[in-house]
Amino acid sequence: MRRFFLVSISFRLVALVAAGALLLSYLSLVVNPVHFSLPAFFGLFFIPIAVVNAVLLLLALFRRSRSAWIPLVALLPSLLFLDPYFHLGNQKVSEVVGADQVRLVTYNVGRFAGHRKEMTRRECQQEILDYLRETDPDIICLQEFYISDTSRLHTILKDYPYRHKHLFRLKGGTWFGNLTVSRYPILDRGRISFKGSTNLSIWTDVQVGSEIFRLYNNHLESFNISFTRLVKRLRGSGEEFSEELNQLQEKMTRSNLKRVEQVNVVLEHIEQSPYPALVCGDLNDTPMSYTYRHLSKGRKDTFVEAGEYLAGTYSTFWPLLRIDYVFVPEHFGVLLHHTERLPWSDHYPVATDLCLYSSRL
Fold this sequence. Notes:
A six-stranded mixed beta sheet has the order 4-5-3-2-14-13. The protein has a six-stranded mixed beta sheet with strand order 6-7-8-9-12-10. A two-stranded antiparallel ribbon has the order 1-11. The chain folds into two domains: 80 residues; 260 residues, Endonuclease/exonuclease/phosphatase (Deoxyribonuclease I, Chain A). By secondary structure, the chain is of the alpha+beta class. It has nine helices and 14 strands. Helix 1 runs parallel beside helix 4.
């Protein structure tokens, strides 16, 4: 009897901790990490925390435990937040006769370093360029684009006459940064630099027919953490793991604060734009975040509109992490959203087909 009581109490404590973690992840959408950073930490792990709560609910139901209400109550709000992560299917916008259509791809190419160790940088670059050629987008937004000699830029993606870039020079004399290329005219362009960071946003005013929109190609602050190292520490002593966990939390807190500053700078720029904003790129944050909530506000998330099944874009922890996005003006129709699981970067490319002037329907 005593053993049963101890098991029951232990289960209830675990369920309460898991439920508390999930409730904190919900708060990450509304709480600015500058004021309170803990919800942002749990928001990053929303999906695995939700899965833990679901498992606890099933166990409680199997055991006919009265504690089942704890994970059940914690999970109910998650139904409101699943759209940016998972879809069984969507009612896509129909093509409009006479309306302009645009295919856009955003892709963090990881400096062409090759996610598979046996690949050379040149081989990785060629595979990615072949993919882009086959996908045949009208506009391409690349982050962590790498080139050893900028005089060769005109030979890469040469079918795109309009382009804008901002590259940082590395110690070895090579370059990396953001690149936007387009088949449609670029009327104006510029960059948004972030203080003390090589992350940035570049913007271009693109004209498609009579429609002009401002395209933001973003690469926001990353967490700069190594989960592989964390796992290795887990296999070692408890003290080593505890130290690594503390460093992880500190890094995540710093990156969250930097990213909030960067998001606010981009939002201020968007407010001054004379054209509707299309925001895309590697935002290095999940849908349960301040970043997602504010950059998607007043815009459509192309996955929510036309995506199917799982939305993960970070290959190392697919399908748990979605950090690459396309947010389009509300009067754009979204015909397609596709994430191709390719092995050449730690990110997957996001492709979307857009129908302009859908507001005329």
